[in-house]
Amino acid sequence: MLFNSFTYALFLPLVFILFWLPVFPKKKDVWQNTVLLLASYVFYASWDWRFAFLIALTTASSFLCGILIEKNRAKAGLVCTANIILNLGILAFFKYAGFFVESFRTLMSLFGLEVGGNLLKIILPVGISFYTFQAIGYTIDVKRGVVPACHNVLRFFAFISFFPQLVAGPIERASSLLPQFSTIRKFDFRQASSGVALIAWGLLLKIVIADRLGVYVDAVWKHPQAAGGLPAFLAVIFFAFQLYTDFYSYSEIARGSARLFGMELMMNFRRPYLSTTFREFWKRWHISLSSWFGDYVYIPLGGNRKGTARKVFNTLVVFLLSGLWHGASWTFVAWGFLCGVFLFFPDNLLKRNTSLKFLNPLVVFALWAISLVLFRAPTFSDALALFGALGFGNAANLNGFGLNLLELLFTVGMLVGLCLVERRCERKGNTLLQRYLDAPSAVRITVLALLVLFIVFMGRYGIGSDSRFIYFQF
Amino acid sequence: MKRFVLEILSALVVIVAVVALCDHRRVFAQEERNNHTGKAWHYLYKYGEPDGGGVDVMILGNSHAYTGLLPDLISQTLGKRCFILAAQGVHMTDCFYMLEEALTVVHPQLLVIETYPLADYKQKELSGIDLSCQYQSFENRRNVWLKLKSTPDLFSLDNAPFAWSRTLRNHGYLFDSQGLIIHNLKNPHPPVYEDEEYLGRFITFTEGLTQATLDRYETEGPPVDGKDMTVGKEAEQALARIRALCEEKGIRVMFLTIPMYHLHIQHRSELEKNLAPYIGDTPWLDLQDPGYDKSFTEDCFEDTYNPNQHQTVRGAFISTAHLNHFIQQNKLLAD
């Protein structure tokens, strides 16, 4: 069930109605959590009902480990490690088994050894990387004493499986989300209205911009040789925006959906393409994952407290893992490595650049967009083919890759519009939502209707459109 | 809460009203020149009027039916009006719903089911051109209640809104067919059909197989394998519903297999074996049978190596002659 599907458009209001039904006033929180839990499992099982058992296993093990850690502090480390191994084991089996076996085979073949046997065809459960990290984060937090262990099964299961953020984050911290399941949520008009606005904004980003960019990017990647020159160049820029708008839109719809139930999720993106350094970029891009790696990997490794060499090593480890988290492929590993390197070069130069600082975001964006060729490429040879195709010729063919001239101009116009909105928000703060909420009812209704109608008429959807979210595959 | 719900509902009303208005004004209607299905339904409803003369022989199927037969020739030979109720690319589930609606306006004596829609398919998982064909067939049906009833069977939840709204389906015209939108804005009414005797035939292939295609049969072999042409569960269920409906209405049923060129398909006996259990002892004219090969020469078939091969006018003429003979010989029509 995709956020941008009619099924979700029916599912969400139905859950909303059930959630706010005036029943069981004395056990309101139990009712609300039950509705969310059942809805979340229905939501997750809509991809494949078998996956529901997997998430239940991860949740149950983390729940029990949390209690065990609290009861027996002496063995907290052991229990915590066991839970991490179990969950990473599940993740490794479903996501990386094929990758490790194939890599081992390749390695052996370098020494002239043939490793036989057939690879298992394992279906990757959607969102497994996200909820596994959330569960692991909880266990570590309990061990560290950051949060108390949760003793309420219903609450804990609802926390891990909360459907708005289940399949593509944000990866929430127990300290922030879990307490929200402990309270009786009261309906707040402004919170719910802002939720609807965020959903509409997210859908616009996804359906009007990201999916349209995807058409062009896919067409160029299919025939990089024919796209040699400007089309390939444009596709690199477009993919950077596609990835951003696709994932940002998901996060906004997730936040909006959560708000309808009186709950708050963290911001996952904060105008990353306005970053002046890569260090800043990672504080603005996929914030929940960056901070997760920071808190649970980088700092335990020693962070920047043990000298420059160790800092470089720790940073590269984090980014290599981050690359691998994104996908079971060496191209992702290479992409992660490159992102790690960018934190030292050119970041050191960018930090010193004070006279032409306004150019920094362009440099960061350009390098980021180039690194994403590795992110997008199925293999290194595909990446090389695309790099080889980059250039400034072949302008006449710009509109020959799935978008005609009018649609191409519209797309560029939308991107320029998005950049202007982001720049305004950066300078004056995000006052647009505030202004929307403060406006008279008639204005709000009109704005919402116009926004949705804009999506209906200008969106890229229907037969032949690929409407999946990119981050679902991770 | 009340204020919130009222606001959302108000916005929803505005959105639905705008989309409905665009649908009603046909702003995103596709080109009518190729809308054979709309024309077929128009005339079928016309024949169903009190002085419309009705339909005696109805042929049910997809493009193989509407290209492979000459209904006016059947009408002339048998002295009964024959009508082809067929939509491009549809399967048996859609055929059932087409028939159900057709039987609310006409009452034929004989139903001829062309066997091509008896395939192995998953109706709600159709995509691409198949789904597009399904939308077109659905859109041209007129009975709103029957359309509502059939929606859950024909479309997934995510595709159903597209079936009901051409604005949702064709909004992409804004970027690639502005001329058509302007034309539609100037002509917001449904097409007006001439007062003629239209019996559902569409598309005329005149050129038969060329030497180049015949050479491909030699070098590449047949593009279609009879072994692959199996009947799925959904087709079986739809066929059972068609039989039950016909039994209830007292309509005789027969099956017809319109052929592809004999070198176009291998393992033809497998095709027959696949179909036979579902047809049972119902009369069946299988023109794909090798016994008919001499009737259907190279000029009887559309010049294509594509698996989906249709007949030319000459092929349709011969198929029609065989069908007429079969109906007469088996006395499938009352005098």
Helices and strands, with pairings:
The complex is a heterodimer of chains A (474) and B (335).
Chain A: H1 6-20, H2 28-45, H3 49-71, H4 76-110, H5 128-144, H6 153-161, H7 174-177, H8 189-222, H9 230-259, H10 278-284, H11 287-298, H12 308-326, H13 330-342, H14 347-352, H15 360-376, H16 380-389, H17 405-428, H18 432-438, H19 441-458
Helix pairs in contact in A: 1-2, 2-3, 2-6, 3-4, 3-5, 3-6, 4-5, 8-9, 8-19, 9-15, 11-12, 12-13, 13-15
Chain B: H1 2-24, H2 36-47, E1 57-61, H3 63-68, H4 71-78, E2 82-86, H5 92-102, E3 110-114, H6 128-140, H7 144-154, H8 160-164, H9 166-170, H10 173-176, H11 178-186, H12 211-220, E4 224-225, H13 233-249, E5 252-257, E6 265-266, H14 268-279, E7 284-286, H15 313-329
Parallel strand pairs in B: 1-2, 1-3, 3-5, 4-6, 5-7
In short:
Chain A is built from 19 helices and no strands. With 474 residues, chain A is mainly alpha-helical.
| Beta-strand segment tally of chain B | 7
The succession of helices and strands of chain B, N to C, reads: HHEHHEHEHHHHHHHEHEEHEH
Helix content of chain B: 40-55%
SSE string of chain A: HHHHHHHHHHHHHHHHHHH
Q: How many strand units of chain A?
A: 0
Question: Please, could you describe this protein's structure?
Answer:
The complex is a heterodimer of chains A (about 475) and B (about 325). Chain A is mostly helical and about 475 residues long. Chain A has 19 helices and no strands. Chain A has helices spanning about 5-20, 30-45, 50-70, 75-110, 130-145, 155-160, 175, 190-220, 230-260, 280-285, 285-300, 310-325, 330-340, 345-350, 360-375, 380-390, 405-430, 430-440, 440-460. The longest helix of chain A has about 35 residues, at about 75-110. Chain A is globular and about 70 Å long. The two termini of chain A are about 15 Å apart. The mean pLDDT of chain A is about 90. By secondary structure, chain B is of the alpha/beta class. Chain B is built from 15 helices and seven strands. In chain B, helix 4 packs parallel to helix 15 (about 315-330), helix 5 (about 90-100) packs antiparallel against helix 7 (about 145-155) and helix 5 runs parallel beside helix 13. The mean pLDDT of chain B is about 95. Classes of the chains: A mainly alpha (about 475), B alpha/beta (about 325).
